[in-house]
């Protein structure tokens, strides 16, 4: 709901009470966008829903409401239509006043959340000594966009990187490190062991081929758990090296995260199992400790357990998530915890949440949300891979996007016969390349799979980052051409006459609704759709034939239209910034 709808709602409530009595305090006027712009901007459907209760025809109810309704500040006189809709058309003077009011506001009139609270977004979360893959890229991009929106709303947000930095795989890695770089376990300095992914692969080969080595690896796990200094040293070294590689990607993508990996919760795992035991939920099953779940069954239809301690005494991914959940509620005092991972982990989270609820660890005012996303597919519709069939490394993927954007830009500059410095070209290529990758991901409904296509995401036409960035730069071009500083435009200048002006004005005032919805459904593609539609509305307004003249218009229209240009540009800039996308003044 946006500000205008909220104001209307208050008036409707008063009218309903005045017409039918105090039974109707707090009633929802069922205010929705008009089904057809011909009928106005909004319609209230409440009369239809009250017909039974009041034993009256909806049209009569609607008329009785309208008689008491005072919306003259906001709307033209309301009209009853069809079976009993109340149609509302916003007054031009009202729209002008709204735009004048947001012109000086850096937040463009968007209020902060009514009840700001501590919230956590758990995202990105790659695994140490393994490459960040496209799934982590999605989590990083989507999680960051969600975090930015919630921060903008004024929530006290923790961005947590639940890095996979603990577990039995470290036994194998450390044992291998001891063999090939014995000095790594003792030297004080960090050691460059080269490409970690290759190292992981080699360690795994060694592990699979040799039973004695497997035993050594198991002992390293025990030493790690016990905190043996040399083993711990090796573990830190591996983590540090991975961390540096992840950081390169975060820097490139402009992502801020607090690392709180699985190892952080290690000291709390025994307590989780103990407390589950105390609450009577724990069942021993073939030596493993588990909790039986409702609604999860195996193929035979038997209830499935969630294992929290394996028969060898080890803990697992789920135990860690139970510990982190408790920590986030008790220590961080989070009221909403949002997990951004691929849809494949939906069951994992549903199970962890269920066990935590059963154990009574989730207070009523805490919300747990898994935000799932689909797969990234190649243009052949199969899982995204390199030509040789390997998983694509994120660094290569981003470098490729930047390189292609560089080539596109060079070609365009040649076509337009423009001379630009190499510095400019590099900067634009980088921003466009990175934005294209982010926007391509964010503009899809995250729950579906999407096809990764450099050509599509770098296209200057369509719902793409280059299109959006171009729309922004084009508006800045108007200010350069007219030698106008948008900040210096006078106050209270907006006058709306032409239909394209009115359409743009109304649309500009809908951003708050989009952001409010996003806060709830955590679907960033709705913001992309809004921004795309906004640039289309702007293009219609700025169109020589269908729209209006701007720089060569007479006053007072000229200033009014320049304010509309500025507001459009700032809305694009704000919206894109919430998606983690930086704009360019020129491109
Ligand atoms: N490291 C995990 C993976 O790569 C993602 C962790 C997500 N967060 C969590 N609290 N489980 O699949």
From TrEMBL:
Residues spanned by motif 'HIGH' region: 126-136
CDD domains: Anticodon_Ia_Arg (cd07956), ArgRS_core (cd00671)
Quaternary structure (record): Monomer.
Database matches in InterPro entries: aa-tRNA-synth_I_CS, Arg-tRNA-ligase, Arg-tRNA-synth_N, Arg-tRNA-synth_N_sf, ArgRS_core, DALR_anticod-bd, Rossmann-like_a/b/a_fold, tRNAsynth_Ia_anticodon-bd
Domain Arginyl tRNA synthetase N-terminal: 6-90
An MF annotation (GO) of this entry: arginine-tRNA ligase activity
Record protein name field: Arginine--tRNA ligase
Pfam families according to UniProt: Arg_tRNA_synt_N, DALR_1, tRNA-synt_1d
Enzyme class, first EC level, given as a word: ligase
Keywords: Aminoacyl-tRNA synthetase, ATP-binding, Cytoplasm, Ligase, Nucleotide-binding, Protein biosynthesis
EC numbers for this chain: 6.1.1.19
Family: Belongs to the class-I aminoacyl-tRNA synthetase family.
Native species: Nostoc paludosum FACHB-159
Parts forming coiled coils: none
């Amino acid at each position: 709901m946006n500000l205008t709808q909220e104001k209307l709602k208050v008036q409707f409530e008063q009218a309903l009470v005045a017409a039918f009595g105090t039974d109707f305090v707090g009633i929802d006027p069922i205010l929705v966008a008009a089904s057809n712009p011909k009928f106005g901007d909004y319609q209230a459907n409440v009369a239809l829903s009250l017909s039974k209760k009041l034993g009256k025809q909806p049209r009569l109810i609607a008329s009785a409401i309208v008689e008491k309704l005072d919306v003259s500040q906001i709307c033209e006189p309301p009209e009853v239509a069809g079976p009993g809709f109340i149609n509302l058309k916003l007054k031009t003077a009202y729209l002008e006043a709204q735009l004048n009011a947001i012109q000086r506001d850096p937040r463009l009139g968007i209020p902060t959340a009514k009840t700001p609270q501590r919230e956590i977004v758990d995202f990105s979360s790659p695994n140490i000594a393994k490459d960040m893959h496209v799934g982590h890229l999605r989590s990083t991009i989507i999680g960051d966009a969600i975090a930015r929106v919630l921060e903008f709303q004024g929530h006290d947000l923790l961005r947590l990187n639940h890095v996979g930095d603990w577990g039995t795989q470290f036994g194998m890695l450390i044992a291998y490190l001891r063999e090939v770089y014995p000095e790594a376990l003792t030297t004080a300095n960090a050691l460059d062991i080269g490409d970690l992914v290759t190292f992981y692969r080699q360690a795994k080969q060694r592990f699979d081929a040799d039973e004695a080595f497997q035993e050594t690896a198991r002992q390293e796990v025990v030493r790690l758990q016990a905190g043996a200094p040399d083993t711990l040293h090796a573990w830190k070294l591996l983590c540090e090296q991975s961390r540096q590689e992840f950081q390169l990607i975060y820097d490139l993508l402009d992502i801020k995260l607090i690392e709180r990996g699985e190892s952080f919760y290690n000291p709390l795992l025994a307590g989780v199992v103990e407390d589950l035991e105390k609450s009577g939920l724990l069942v021993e099953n073939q030596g493993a400790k588990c909790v039986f779940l409702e609604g999860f069954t195996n193929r035979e239809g038997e209830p499935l357990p969630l294992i929290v301690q394996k028969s060898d005494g080890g803990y697992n991914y789920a135990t860690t998530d139970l510990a982190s959940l408790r920590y986030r509620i008790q220590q961080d005092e989070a009221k909403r915890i949002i997990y951004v991972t691929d849809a494949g982990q939906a069951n994992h989270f549903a199970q962890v949440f269920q066990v935590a609820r059963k154990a009574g660890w989730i207070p009523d005012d805490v919300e747990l949300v898994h935000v799932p996303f689909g797969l990234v597919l190649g243009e052949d519709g199969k899982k995204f891979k390199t030509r040789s069939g390997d998983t694509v490394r994120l660094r290569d993927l981003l470098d490729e996007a930047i390189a292609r954007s560089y080539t596109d830009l060079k070609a365009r500059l040649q076509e337009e016969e423009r001379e630009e410095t190499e510095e400019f070209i590099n900067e634009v290529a980088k921003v466009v390349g990175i934005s294209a990758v982010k926007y391509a991901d964010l503009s899809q409904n995250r729950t579906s799979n999407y096809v990764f296509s450099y050509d599509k995401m770098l296209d200057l036409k369509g719902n793409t980052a280059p299109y959006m960035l171009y729309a922004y730069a084009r508006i800045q071009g108007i200010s350069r051409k007219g030698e106008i500083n948008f900040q210096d435009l006078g106050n209270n200048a907006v006058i709306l006459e032409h239909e394209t002006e009115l359409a743009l004005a109304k649309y500009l005032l809908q951003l708050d609704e989009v952001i409010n919805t996003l806060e709830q459904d955590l679907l960033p593609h709705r913001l992309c759709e809004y921004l795309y539609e906004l640039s289309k509305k702007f293009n219609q307004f700025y169109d020589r034939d269908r729209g209006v003249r701007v720089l060569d218009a007479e006053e007072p229209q000229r200033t009014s239209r320049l304010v509309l240009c500025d507001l459009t540009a700032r809305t694009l800039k704000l919206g894109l910034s919430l998606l983690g996308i930086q704009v360019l003044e020129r491109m």
